[in-house]
Amino acid sequence: MDNKLRRTKIIRLVTSMLLMLSVIFYVLSNYKINESQNELIKQQNDELNVLKLYSDNLESRIKLLEERVQKLEVDRVNTESYLEELSTENEQLKKEVEDLKKMEWVSFEATAYTAKCDGCTGITATGKDIRNQSIDHRVVAVDPNIIPLGSIVEIEGYGRFVAADTGGAIKGRKIDILHQSKKEAYQFGRRDVEVKIVKRG
User: Fold this and answer.
1) Of 145, 143, 144, 140, residue with least CA distance to 158
2) Each residue's pLDDT expressed in tens, for the chain with a length of 201 residues
3) DSSP per residue over 159-177, as a string?
4) C-alpha–C-alpha distance, residues 9 and 24, integer Å
5) CB 3.0–4.6 Å: which of 49, 62, 64, 179 could bond 185 by disulfide?
6) The domain 105-199: what is its CATH number?
7) Half-sphere exposure (CA, 13 Å, Cβ side) for 53?
């Protein structure tokens, strides 16, 4: 009886230990599974954060590119408009030159200037000293694209002049007549005149 009872106790003890080991194994297995899942979730979250960061950066770059494209489009439109204006001015200039080449009278806007003014050097664009000019040697400032420097021009009602000077405001059909004094220049003022090239420079 004692042996049988002992065997029974041993069997129960072994059974209890096996059951306990089974429980421990189950718990450890679940722990490892949960740990693996947590690691996987963390990894996925990291990847999502990287993708979000990349997406935000990509959106920022796309926005910057769109702004650059818009600026380029504005620049293109402005450039086309400027080129169109230049083309129109060039055509007008060609027409004015052709009119002058025909040796016909052409309407100009005339103004007056003098060598005796503050900041004036008294030396023309062609190097002529006009500080002591005589009435027989009259000078006008012209746009060289319209009237070549060195040309002899006739201004209806005023006689002939040498195109020997230029001026920052003298563009197109404008001509600036040199006078001996400020008083004469002020008296002349601004008026429309007829001009003809007598001899091209």
Assistant:
1) 140
2) 555 666 666 666 667 666 676 666 665 565 555 556 667 667 766 666 666 676 677 677 777 777 887 887 778 878 888 888 878 877 777 776 666 565 689 999 999 988 876 667 777 888 787 776 554 458 999 999 999 999 999 999 999 999 999 988 899 999 999 888 888 889 999 999 999 999 887
3) EEEEEEE--TT--SSEEEE
4) 22
5) 179
6) 2.40.40.10
7) 6
